[in-house]
Amino acid sequence: MDMRMARTRPSRADALGATGALGAALPFLALLVVGLAFPLFGGGYWGVIATRACVYWVLVSGLNLVVGFAGQLAIGWVSLLTLGAYTTSVLAAGNVTPEVPPYLALAATAVVGAVFGLIIGLPALRLRTFYFAITTLGFATIVTQVALAWQSVTGGGVGVPGPVFPPPFDTQWGFYYFCFGLAAICTWMTANVAASRFGRALTAIRDAEVAAEACGIAKPALLVTIFLFSGAVAAVAGGLFASLQSYITPDAFTLDLSVLFFIAILIGGRGSVLGPLLGTILLTVLPEFAAPLVAWSTFLYAVLLLVIVLAIPGGIAELLDFKNRRPLASNRAIVPRPDLLPRLLGKPAKAGTLTLQQVALSFGGVHAIDGLDLEIRPGQVHGLIGPNGSGKTTTLNVISGYYAQQRGAVKLDGAALPVLARHRRAHLRIARTFQTPRLVGAASVVENVMIGGTIAGDGTFVESLLSLPRHRRDEAALREAAVLALSVVGLEALAPVRADRLQHSELRFIEIARALILRPAFLLLDEPAAGLSAEEIERLGALLEAIAQAGTGVLVVEHHPDFIFDVCHHVTVLNLGKVLAAGTPAEIRSHREVVNAYLGG
Amino acid sequence: MVQSIVLSGVAIGCIYALIGVTYNVMFSASRVFSFTAGTLGMLGGVLGSLFIGQWGMPVLVGFLMVLVAGALFGIVTELVAVRPVLRSLDQHLYVLSTLALALMVQQLTAIEWGTESRPFPRLIDLPRGAFDQQFWLPMAACIVAIVGLDLFHRHTLVGRAFLAIAEDTFAARALGLPERGLRMTSFALAGAIGALAGFAGGEMLLAFFGNAPMLTFYGFVPVALGGMGNNRGAVVAGLLLGLFQQSANFLVGGIFASVAVFTVFILVLLARPEGLAGASAQRRV
User: Fold this and answer.
1) Mutate to test the interface with B, among A78, A298, A306 (most CBs of B within 10 A)
2) Nearest chain A CA: its distance from B136 CA (Å)
3) Do A16 and A483 contact (CB within 8 A), yes or no?
């Protein structure tokens, strides 16, 4: 039985990836064919519209990673289009430098755009949502004003001619194919990122930032990378835009354009590449169908935005997601397979103990934990119980670096853990789950588990961008491990399903799978049995025992005394931030104070 | 020269402060920052010019009509763009819904009113002087609004209920306070204050649709720097912003003044994301 399972699993993991990839690529291939054949049908004016859609998409594809994936509300991205348009035009026209060949000018623009993408994006590392939105809006106004004022370079209100690309790209259709080619490359690259550990990490930052940190995802580094990329392609789009317009003035870069880019992504749906692509085409073409509507176009975009937000927050992508409309079996059960654990976790690496020495932390005048000693040994399940407010979750949060203790030390094998460095914990192979499951609802179950293995990859962002071999190896290995982890917790049948369609108890087990994929030396669980049925609690207990047997040190915060006494080797009882009692389950069960204060007589 | 810089700086600072208060009143009741704050200011100017300048209404009637229109727009904002997305506050959908509503009104104004700025009527028949009504009207409006709000919060039952909601929505609801009604009232009040800002500053800013994004940005600076929900902080930061902007205007010219304001704004925010007067909140896991 086991042999058969072992042989069939990997091939299933492959199939899951391969068929999914083919189905996902079909709409893009169809668009590619239509785009290539477009000059056969379209008249002169439609050529301009089609070229414009391509140029816009070059920008939106990059912005999509910022807005759709990372969830950063960059509403003023037109500033980068403006910057790119002027940089290319000014370089090509030779206003300040000797005349630069257009291709070289475009390349230089990409570099300038990357730098400014970073500058405009940087506040996102410190500021939240509305604040960041406002700062990007501010940039958009400033850039136009500078373009207007810096007459010696930008020509002020009179403007500058856009660059003309040499043959064969100097005709209308030639230029169209140039832009279409770049748009296709951008689509390919961003789709690669979307399907990589970087794309998943971005959605994790967007929807479950705390969990992302616990998985070792370093938000600053990741955001800096995509701001560089997004700025570069946006500026290139600006260069193309200038060439398409043939002459640019500051008036060309209204906030309306910014709104168009932003709304195209939201109409398309967050966390999708196809949706925003369709959204961009839709918004570029829509006003052309009725000339009187042109003046109303921004008004209509705004109405669309409101309707989308209120009625279908998932956008086009959700409407097209037929796979997730099929009803799920209602009688599904979670049947973990602890026997597969050794395959997932491998040979237990030699790990030391995780110790807390005299740790104290108070919020205002409240002593949340007050001189706590704790020792978690590999291969043992350690239970942490106590009444509400006794400091259980706070202890977990100190260990995983969300809170800084004011006194005492947390040590792993004798070395103190860095204070508040939450995303370093995953590198030390300390994994955790949360009191309320923190998952990316819009991502599939298997993708959620893969987020847990983000730090396991070797490939760089650029390798993922270009889908180089190392990236593909990373992905295959990660997917296989994720499916295996799902089999361990008994949820592999739900691998392709959107996580937000599942029941609460299933989400708890997905979090455990996400933690297990890290092959943790220590696993911290915050009330894993809450909301589970009696049967599920029993299976959870067996799973935890097996995890400990495989060499992992497990710390469980729980309220179910029976569950704790059944699975734990060692129990610590907290009261008001202090250790009330510690010992084996049998000792605790008969401890008089514990029975009085907590368990009841 | 110094006198005119100070006068116009304080006056424009008062307008920014009032828009900041508009943000704050909406925020306190709902934990939502709304992009419509600047739109309200723009509407105050445009509607004032329409009612009094074009339709020839008496100044007082026109003024009251502007306040009513602002309050109505506040209520519409609450109903259309805030209430439906409050349940999922953590997803920040309000940023998008209020942006959509603000854009709709702004575009509608651009189409119906025009994209050129139009003059705002003189409200009081007095000769022009150094300390002109275009300067002291915004100052008076700001003082009246701040003092009025303060008295309202301290001395009326509804005002105290506002404070309770702002402090702890759940606790207030548990006490049986009509949270929805109070939120709607807050938005109506914010609407009137925003419209008052645009109306009082009409002669300085003119009746111009483009004032909406401008005020949305400059009105948020006092909120961000003064600490969210903190009206006194907003007034101080607003006045500083106005004075800084007008001096930069005079010293380095208009465009680089906005660059300077923007740079200072970003740098201060990066150094202290919770504002100069705000306290940082403990993070909850």
Assistant:
1) A306
2) 28
3) yes
pLDDT score of A196: 95
Residues 6+ apart with CB under 8 A from A309: A266, B85, B93, B96, B97, B100
Instruction: Output the six-digit token pair for A206.
Output: 């967007």
pTM of the full structure: 0.89
Crossing angle for the helix pair A255-268 and A44-64, to the nearest 10 degrees: 70
Domain boundary pick from A230, A255, A280 = A255
**What is the number of CB-based contacts under 8 A between chain A and chain B?**
107
Helix axes B93-113, B59-77, angle to 10 degrees: 140
The confidence score (pLDDT) of residue A599 equals 73
Look at residue A569 and tell me if it is in a domain. yes
A266–B273 C-beta distance less than 8 A: no
The number of C-alpha atoms within 13 Å of A369 and in the hemisphere containing its C-beta is 31
ipTM for the assembly: 0.89
Q: Does A129 touch chain B (CB under 8 A)?
A: yes
Cα A188 from Cα A233, distance rounded (Å):
13
Of A255, A277, A302, the residue at which a domain comes to its end is A255
Give me B80's structure tokens: 């259309």
Q: Which two tokens stand for residue A132?
A: 């960041």
Does the residue A10 lie in any domain?
Answer: no
CATH number, domain at A419? Answer: 3.40.50.300
The domain of A535 spans: 338-599
The structural domains of chain B, with segments of one domain joined by +, span 2-116+133-248
Residue type present at position A560: H
Measured between beta carbons, the chain B residues lying within 8 angstroms of A146 are 255, 259
Total residue count of chain A as it appears in this document:
601
Mean pLDDT of A280-303: 82
Give the best residue of B103, B108, B221 to mutate against chain A (max A CB count within 10 A).
Answer: B103
If DSSP codes are grouped into helix, strand and coil, which group holds residue A584?
coil
CA distance A235 to chain B (A): 21
- Partner B contacted by A397 (CB < 8 A): yes
* Mean pLDDT within B30-54: 94
- What is the number of structural domains in chain A? 2
pLDDT at position A15 is 40
A126·B80 Cβ contact <8 A: no
Tell me chain A's radius of gyration from C-alpha atoms: 28
pLDDT band at residue A21 using 50, 70 and 90 as cut-offs:
low
| Cis before A528 (ω within 30) | no
Cβ atoms of A56 and A209 within 8 Å: the answer is: no
Which of A129, A149, A402 faces B285 most closely, judged by CB atoms? A402
